[in-house]
Amino acid sequence: MSALVRWPHAWAAWLRLACVLGWAGILLALSAPVQAQVERLDDSTSPRGQVQATLDDGGIARPGSTVTPFAQVNFGRIDYRLNTARYVGRRARIYYVLPAAVPGLRTPQAITVQWRGQGLFASGQGRPGERIPVWNGVVPGPWITESLDLSWRVDMRELRLSRGQPLGFEAYFEIELLP
Question: What is the pTM of this model?
């Protein structure tokens, strides 16, 4: 008898929800995919996490000048050591994340970060504020070690750095667990 008493109350709750959201909202809420679990990977044992460049103003275009306003900054090989111990044996995707805020940069379009993977990670490019997938598969062990050949292409007209102030940021990696 208690189930019969509770049933009208549950039905009334669904009807109230239907009035607020509409039936389409309820169906959408019930059919929405489960959010993937995304976490930042610990790379604190990497030899060099933050990458900085000291730029002079020699590449800035002046009125009537043919000097290009773009600077190419090559950092060479950057080694990363990612702690993946919690994810061993699980399917996952790893992203290279470029922070949205870069001190001295007026617009994210002013810099393009390019990298070439040395084995495990895919090569690619991105701009501040982007997450770019670099690896997909079953996590093989407690550490994933990879090197990236890293470079930046910077539009010097969009920088506002004081003399000697380095242009830099700390990119990081995120892992997304897959079903």
Answer: 0.71
